Structures are given as structure tokens and as C-alpha cells.
């Protein structure tokens, strides 16, 4: 990971804009050919985008949480696969920056090096999604440990330098092992077969007798915890809002593609009110609704990001003992998902009304937007979020203290 670039990109800079443009330039062809965006991730390493949230005093990009989410939206507009690949990394950095000085020092050094962290938490099987149990085990081995288990939905790990692996230790406590992806016993498969987010590497990772040193273990939860700790409102809200930000980015891309397609149309319908498609008020209406959805989605995500920032700051200061701000952040992240899921899925269908039958040709690949949005919206059913929000407002029932909220 040697590089001539040492300083991370900063929010609003020309370097950041150039990076996102370079990633976007190859996005459509990658989708068409099935090429994986390894080169795009190498650009991100070189430009130290993963250190965007590290404070400037520590050598990082110094972005606010709102600016981070704005950057995610812009990157998702250029290539939503690449933006999604970084979800585990930005979550890892955010979580460690809120902890003690040693954790902050370690995550700062990692991010400034250009290294990328991937996600390896979810396990397939009979255990309900979101249950606080793990088949993946961390066992003592001399002065260190051995890690064994299989994970799925490991978004980004295919491209990452490290995997953040959630496991159970011999006492039943949940821990995180941060292990290099090139270590013996680590296998990451490109076997994600989803209809959308095809290049995110959201497939299987196996850990077979992987050596883990003591300093690679990060405490996660006490062994006697019956449920996930309420503090997970913060990490859960970040992880969930990130997905909604990806949808907001796709909506921006939808708007641009709809406008471009109208101007490219050589003809309109015989019964259309105007000869030129761009002058057709009905097509303008469709594009206007897509544009309005893109605006509303971005504004909603950024408003929820502000609530999350307030909760993070309060957590660092230790002045939110009742987790009121943390719960509010979770509530707003859930509400953002409910609203943006609906707007995005409608807009992803509307683009096909802008162009008629010719718009469904693989030449345009406009179906990628619907596939990506539908896949992103399926990250935890919207109905559960809406019901939980309703129960809170009607009965005062708090949202689950879960990584899924």
C-alpha cells in the first residue's frame, strides 16, 4: 500500500471531487462487464478516503458526520457498489473514535495508512437475524487465540485489508477480532449472487484455525448480556443510515440518467403533446418527481445524520446516561429508511416511464438502479421499522437496542 499521497482527502476539496469522478467514469462499464472495482478501491486507499472522519489534529480529513454522509451520497451517485464496500470501514472507524485513547490511536493509524476494514458479522442458519449469538468461536491458543467460523453478507471484505469478525469467546462474551484478510486460514469468496449490489463482495468469508493475537481482540459485549446493549443504538443507527444514504445516492443518479435519456430520445409518441421529448410536460412531470425524491432523500438522510452526530458527541462527553439522544438517533435513522425506501422504489420505476419500451434495453442498463435500490431496501424489512416507530409514538415503547435499528 505504498503511495506518494500522505494526507487524506478532505470534504469539499478538488481532490475528493476528482476521486469520485474517476470512480464514476468506469462504473457503467464495470456493471456491464461484471468487472470488480478493485482499481477503484486502490484509488481510495491512495487518497486515504477511509480517514475522512479522523480529526485533522490527528492528520485526518476532519469531516463532520454530516459531511461524511454527504460524501457517501455523492460517491453512491457515482458508483453505489464502491460506496457500499466502504460501509464496514466507516462504521469501524466511527465506533473506535468514540472509545478510549488507545482505540482512537489504533483506528487513526489504520485509517491514515490507507487500509480498508471489511465487515464479517452475520451468520446464516436457524438463528434469527439479529440474535445476539455467534457460531464463530475464538479459542485460546498459547498466548493468543484461534478463530473458526463462517460469515455471510460480508460486504466489502473481498476488497479489504482487514476483516472485523464478530465471535464468541470461551466465556460466551461477544468479541471482535480484527484480522488481516491475507492471513493463513482466511478465505473470502466472491459468491454474492444478489440481483443488485453485485460487485460489493457481499458473500462468504471463512475463518479456519486463524491465528489471532491478544492485541487484535476488541471487547464488544459482556458475557451475561441477555440482549444487545442499548449503546448499540449508536452503531446500529450508523450502519442502517449508511444504507439509506446509498439509496439517496442512487436517486441522484436516477435523476441524471432520466434527464440524459429524455435529451437522447430521437422521437416521441405520435400522440405526445410535443414533438421533442424534452418539451413534453408529462415527461417533465415524471422527472420532476424523481428530482423531488432525490432532494427529499438527501435532506432526510442529512437530518438524521445531525441527530446521530449529537448522540455521538454526547456519548463521548458521557452526558447522555439515559440514552435519550442515542434513541432519538436510532428513531430518525429508522424513519429515514421508511421514507426513502418508498421514494426510491417509486422513482426507480418512474424512470421507465420517461423512455418507453426502448429504455429497458441493456444498452442503457437503467434496471441497475431498481435492482440496487430494491436490494438496499431489503436490508432489514421496512415494515418492522415502521411498526417500531408507530409503537414508540403510540405506546412509548422504545426501539429495540439492536444493531438492526
Model description:
It is a single chain. This protein has 405 residues and is α+β, with helices and mostly antiparallel strands. The protein has three domains: 14-115, Acyl-CoA dehydrogenase/oxidase, N-terminal domain (Butyryl-Coa Dehydrogenase, subunit A, domain 1); 137-221, Butyryl-CoA Dehydrogenase, subunit A, domain 2; 232-395, Butyryl-CoA Dehydrogenase, subunit A, domain 3, CATH 1.20.140.10. The protein contains twelve helices and eight strands. Strands 1-4-5-8 form a four-stranded mixed sheet, with helices on one face. The chain has a four-stranded antiparallel sheet with strand order 2-3-7-6, with no helix packed on it. Helix 1 packs antiparallel against helix 3, helix 6 runs antiparallel to helix 7 and helix 9 (281-317) packs antiparallel against helix 10. It is globular, with a radius of gyration of 22 Å. The two termini are 35 Å apart. Residues 221-228 have low confidence and may be disordered.
The first-level CATH class of the largest domain is given as Mainly Alpha
- End-to-end Cα distance, whole Å, is 35 Å
The SS-based structural class is alpha+beta
**CATH level-4 homologous superfamily of the largest domain:** Butyryl-CoA Dehydrogenase, subunit A, domain 3
Largest sheet: 4 strands, mixed
Helix-strand topology string: HHHHHHHEEEEEEEEHHHHH
Which keywords apply here?
405 residues, alpha+beta, Butyryl-Coa Dehydrogenase, subunit A, domain 1, Butyryl-CoA Dehydrogenase, subunit A, domain 2, Butyryl-CoA Dehydrogenase, subunit A, domain 3, 3 domains, four-stranded mixed β-sheet, four-stranded antiparallel β-sheet, 49% helix, globular
Amino acid at each position: 500500500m505504498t503511495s506518494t499521497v500522505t494526507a487524506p482527502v478532505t470534504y469539499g476539496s478538488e481532490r475528493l471531487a476528482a476521486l469520485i469522478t474517476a470512480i464514476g467514469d468506469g462504473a457503467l462499464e464495470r456493471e456491464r462487464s461484471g468487472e470488480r472495482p478493485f482499481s477503484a478501491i486502490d484509488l481510495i486507499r491512495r487518497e486515504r478516503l477511509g480517514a475522512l472522519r479522523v480529526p485533522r489534529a490527528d492528520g485526518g480529513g476532519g469531516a463532520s458526520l454530516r459531511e461524511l454522509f454527504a460524501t457517501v451520497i455523492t460517491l453512491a451517485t457515482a458508483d453505489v457498489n464502491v460506496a457500499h464496500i466502504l460501509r464496514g470501514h466507516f462504521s469501524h472507524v466511527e465506533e473506535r473514535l468514540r472509545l478510549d485513547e488507545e482505540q482512537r490511536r489504533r483506528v487513526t493509524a489504520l485509517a491514515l495508512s490507507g487500509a480498508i476494514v471489511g465487515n464479517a458479522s452475520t451468520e446464516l442458519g436457524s438463528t434469527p437475524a439479529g440474535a445476539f449469538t455467534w457460531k464463530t468461536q475464538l479459542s485460546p491458543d498459547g498466548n493468543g487465540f484461534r478463530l473458526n467460523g463462517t460469515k455471510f453478507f460480508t460486504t466489502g471484505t473481498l476488497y479489504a485489508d482487514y476483516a472485523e469478525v464478530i465471535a464468541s469467546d470461551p466465556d460466551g462474551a461477544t468479541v471482535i477480532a480484527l484480522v488481516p484478510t491475507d492471513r493463513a486460514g482466511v478465505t473470502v469468496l466472491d459468491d454474492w449472487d444478489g440481483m443488485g449490489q453485485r460487485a460489493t463482495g457481499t458473500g462468504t468469508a471463512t475463518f479456519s484455525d486463524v491465528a489471532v493475537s491478544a492485541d487484535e481482540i476488541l471487547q464488544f459485549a459482556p458475557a451475561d448480556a441477555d440482549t444487545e446493549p442499548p449503546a448499540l443504538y449508536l452503531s446500529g443507527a450508523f450502519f442502517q443510515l449508511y444504507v439509506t444514504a446509498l439509496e439517496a445516492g442512487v436517486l441522484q443518479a436516477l435523476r441524471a440518467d432520466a434527464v440524459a435519456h429524455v435529451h437522447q430520445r430521437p422521437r416521441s409518441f405520435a400522440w405526445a403533446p410535443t414533438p421533442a421529448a424534452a418539451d413534453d410536460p408529462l415527461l417533465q412531470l415524471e422527472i420532476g418527481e424523481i428530482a423531488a425524491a432525490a432532494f427529499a432523500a438527501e435532506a432526510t438522510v442529512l437530518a438524521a445524520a445531525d441527530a446521530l452526530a449529537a448522540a455521538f458527541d454526547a456519548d463521548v462527553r458521557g452526558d447522555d446516561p439515559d440514552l435519550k439522544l442515542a434513541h432519538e438517533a436510532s428513531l430518525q435513522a429508522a424513519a429515514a429508511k421508511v421514507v426513502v425506501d418508498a421514494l426510491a422504489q417509486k422513482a426507480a420505476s418512474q424512470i421507465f416511464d420517461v423512455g418507453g419500451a426502448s429504455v429497458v434495453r441493456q444498452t442503457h442498463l437503467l434496471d441497475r438502479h431498481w435492482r440496487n435500490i430494491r436490494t438496499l431496501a431489503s436490508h432489514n424489512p421496512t415494515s418492522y421499522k415502521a411498526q417500531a416507530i408507530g409503537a414508540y409514538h403510540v405506546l412509548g415503547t422504545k426501539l429495540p437496542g439492536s444493531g438492526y435499528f
